[in-house]
# Entry
Amino acid sequence: MIDQPHWRRLLLRSEEAASKYEEEIKNHAPSDGCNLCNDEDSTIQEFTHFVLMRNKFPYDRYFTKSDMIVSKRHVTELELNQEERAELSEIKKTLSDSYDSLIEHLPKQKSIPGHSHLHVIEFKRPV
# Structure
């Protein structure tokens, strides 16, 4: 996991979610493995090559939903094969009724750079 600056952790997260995230970073040892590979409890929906899962450290400052599309294989986006890319494209289409946007961080900003994942979010609506 990449150690991101404090401002970056707070940019999209509330203070509470950011504190939980910072605690995880502090306590996560490299030998513990990938957070995405080890998180089976957050699954919302399973596909052939991907899992839709809850973000344990949600981007809750501006979004009511903050979930992730995560590849089942521990690979980067560049290592996805043709079949995985096709499925990801289909998943994006099916999720358009439930979410507003995708967030894909560029390599410099990825907290888990070795495991392909996209954030799917729904914006908070004004009352």
Notes: The longest strand covers residues 63-71.
